[in-house]
Amino acid sequence: MASFVEEPRTGDIIQISRSGYSHWAIYVGDGHVIHLAPLDESRGAGLSPWKGEVKRELLAEVAGGCPYQVNNHLDHLYKPQPVKEMIRSAEELIGKEMEYCFQRSSHELFVTGLRYGPAHSRQCVREPMPGDMIEIPHMFYKDWAIYVGEGFVIHLSPPGEWHLSMFLSGNATVTKQPLEKVALGCSYKVNNHLDYKYRPRPVPEIIHSAESIIGLQRTYTVRKENSEKFVTDLRYGWLRRELSQRPHPEWGSAHPVRPRCCSVCVRRCPLLDVWSPPGRMLGPAARST
Hints:
Radius of gyration: 19 Å
Largest sheet: 6 strands, antiparallel
Helix content: 10-25%
Protein name: LRAT domain-containing protein
Oligomer: single chain
Family: Belongs to the H-rev107 family.
Keywords: Hydrolase, Lipid metabolism, Transferase
CATH architecture of the largest domain: Alpha-Beta Complex
Number of helices: 6
GO molecular function, one term: N-acyltransferase activity
Order of helices and strands: EEEEHEHEHEEEEHEHEH
Number of strands: 12
């Protein structure tokens, strides 16, 4: 049985990390969630909209062995609705068919509408501002970048144009590119998912730190979510990053160049050496040692 650092509470938004994308649900207590599920599960993370159904199911069954975590990512902007109102609204929708589209994040909009109200659910697809973390869901993985303004982002980029070549492992370079080019035609969204818990660093510091390491090359593994850890370090500072308890890659270098972001680090900078110890993570990945 999984060991949890923190159990979800009624009304919490649950983010389930599946292969290449996230599924979202709202926790309603007693181990159950309500979520928007595709009627045809075999279609997976498709590009075109189809029918989905609102279901109440056990969280463990919906997760299907994938790790999950609480992600009330708009709490820093909006006051959640009363828990009883969230649950009542969710239960009234059980059995209803709705449009389901992975690329439009229908399932995420569904749960944010329940927690914050429909008027605020579109916040998860707002226009980015400098310092924002950008989540880009590709078919088989998610890429992350930090928005630095004027349509540009800084992110970990593989050599060449074929991003899927990094699915197992490879080298990546810190690169500044237009967001539209990085997205490769996929939808993208702002996802500052720790703002509800931690205060972001000042925007000039975020951008300065990112620009000071452009051109550095590091080992990259999509399955270890290096790109998300990279941008989370930049936005919040590496000691505040929430990580899964999966193995973390070394960022060593034969001839390291100390980036200026080290001025805000208490210990060795992870962009130079080793990722910090893992933080909380819910689900099967968070087993006690």
